[in-house]
Amino acid sequence: MFQISSQELITLVATFIWPFSRILGLFSSAPLLSQNSFPVTTRIGLAIAMTILIMPDMSLTVTKDPLSMDGLLILINQFLIGISIGFVMRVIFAAIEMAGELIGVSMGLGFATFYNPQTQGQTIVISQFLSLLALAIFLSTNLHLVMLESFFDSFKTIPINQISLAPVAFRDLAYWGSNIFSIGLQLSLPIVTTLLIANIALGILTKAAPQLNLFGIGFPITIGVGFLMLSINMPYWSSPIINSLDMGIQMIRQATATLAT
Fold first, then answer.
1. 116 — phi, psi (to 5°)?
2. Helix 69-107 vs helix 143-157: angle between axes, to the nearest 10 degrees?
3. Do the domain assignments include residue 1?
4. How many CA atoms lie within 13 A of 29 on its CB side?
5. pLDDT in tens, 47-72
6. Cβ distance 117 to 79 under 8 Å?
C-alpha cells in the first residue's frame, strides 16, 4: 500500500505552492500575460502547467512548514519577485505608451481616447497604436520567450526558501521606472519637434494674416503633419524598440542577481 509521510507531503506542497506563487506574480504584471483579455482561468492553468514542468528540476530543501509564519513570508516573497520581474518589462511598454501620449497631445488628438484593457483606463489612440506595435515586435522577435527564460533562471539565482531579499534591488527597480520618461521622450522627440516647428509656423502665419482662422486650419495641419511624421518614422522605430526590450531583459537578469545578494 502506498504511504506518504507528513514531511513528504509538506515538501510536495511547498515545492508546488512557492514556485506557483512566483509565476502568478509574473502573470499579474508582465506584458500580455497581465491583460484582462487574457482569461483568468487560462492564466491560472498555464501557471499550474509551468509549475508542474519545473518541479522536477527544483532541488528544494524544505525546512519550514508552508503554513507557518516563515512559510507565508516565503510565499509573499515569491509573489513579489514575480511582480518585480514582470514590472521591468512593463516599464518598457509604459515608456512606449508615454511616447504615444506625447505625440497624440502634440497632434491635437488628446480628445481621441478609448478604453485600454492593458492599462484599465482611457488611452490616446496613438498611444494604443504604439503599444500594439511594441507588442507585435515583442512577440515576433521571440523576446517573450527570452523573458520567460530569464524568469526561470531566477529560480537558480534566488533560492525558493530565501526569506530576506536585498532592499537595494527594490530601490534599483524604482530607479528603473524613471526610464519611462527618458525612453518615451527619445521615441517621441522627432515627431514632437516637427509638430512644434509646425505650430510656430502657424503662429507666425496667423500673426502675419490675422484674418486666417487658426482653429480652422491649425488642427488639420498639425494632424496631417503628425500622421506624415508617423509614417516616416515607422520603419525606424523597430530598432530602438528592440533595443529597449533587450535592455529590459538585461535589467531582469540584473534584478534577479541583485535580489539574491
1. -105, 115
2. 150
3. no
4. 21
5. 888 888 887 777 666 667 677 777 78
6. no
For 239, phi then psi, to 5°, come to: -65, -50
| 113-116 and 121-124 strand pairing | antiparallel
Residue 211 counted as domain residue = yes
What are the helix (H) ranges across the chain? 6-27, 40-54, 69-107, 125-140, 143-157, 167-176, 179-208, 214-260
Confirm whether 78 is domain-assigned: yes
pTM of the model: 0.80
Q: What is the CA radius of gyration of the chain?
A: 24
Q: How far apart are CA 169 and CA 167, in angstroms?
A: 5
Report the chain's mean pLDDT, rounded to a whole number. 79
Distance CA 258, CA 158 (A): 9
> How many domains in the chain?
1
> CA separation (Å) from 240 to 68, 98, 187, 191?
47, 15, 8, 15
Q: Which residues contact 193 (CB under 8 A, 6 or more apart)?
A: none
Q: Which domain holds residue 187?
A: 6-260
- For the stretch 137-156, pLDDT in tens is 888 888 888 888 888 888 88
Main-chain phi, psi angles of 115, to 5 degrees:
-75, 130
Question: Do 105 and 192 form a contact (C-beta atoms < 8 A)?
Answer: no
Number of other residues whose CB lies within 10 A of the CB of residue 76: 13
Provide the 8-state DSSP code for 28: T
Whether the Cβ atoms of residue 86 and residue 155 lie closer than 8 Å to each other: no
Residue 105: other Cβ atoms inside 10 A: 17
